Please model this.
Amino acid sequence: EIVMTQSPASLSGSPGERVTLSCRASQSVTDNLAWYQQKPGQAPSLLVYGASARATGIPARFSGSGSGTEFTLTISSLQSEDFAVYFCQQYNNWPLTFGPGTKVDIK
Amino acid sequence: EVQLVESGGGLVQPGGSLRLSCSASGFTFRSYSMNWVRQAPGKGLEWVSFISSSGATIQYLDSVEGRFTISRDTAKNSLFLQMDSLRDEDTAVYYCARQLREGSGSSAIFASWGQGTLVTVSS
Model:
């Protein structure tokens, strides 16, 4: 099983701030990596897939990068609606696995 | 608009059974592979099971293999998860999730999610 880890577990940011979230895989997943956003009481929603491709309707302030075992999600300018939990997921191998999440809240 | 609506959750005793359903609309259901993903209260996401668009390929999380059965009914545009021998650790919100692209060989990217149904296993 590929174990996904994320750092930090939580971060506090101010509106307008640039933040970077990290995700690491225990073995290479090439670029088969997705990012999801989950707000309280809601289902997750897809942000990025293929490590760097934004899903339909996702603002350009969200960008993904990386390959192999190291990945990042960058929010270039935090907006109020971005405060949420972010999960990475690998889809290179079965079983599909998620990271534990990074909670982004307001400073 | 893609819509996925789960139902069938509830309170069940350890060792009991439940059958979850996911009603799909707004897309050609038979063309997309589907998944179940769960989230224990206050915890992260855990993939549970996959079924290809044709139904020919099925995958399970090891901890549910032999206890859970995924299936689909194209005529009813529905996805199912039969859960037997339930354990306390199966307590979670269960989401059905559609993959991003059509086809049995598409990557397991979860592009559309239902709102989930809560399963509570407790005596």
Chain A has a mean pLDDT of 97. The interface with chain B takes residues 32, 34, 36, 38, 42-46, 49, 55, 87, 89, 91, 94-101 of chain A (CB under 8 Å). The first strand of chain A starts at residue 4 and ends at 7. Residues 9 and 102 of chain A are 5 Å apart (CA to CA).
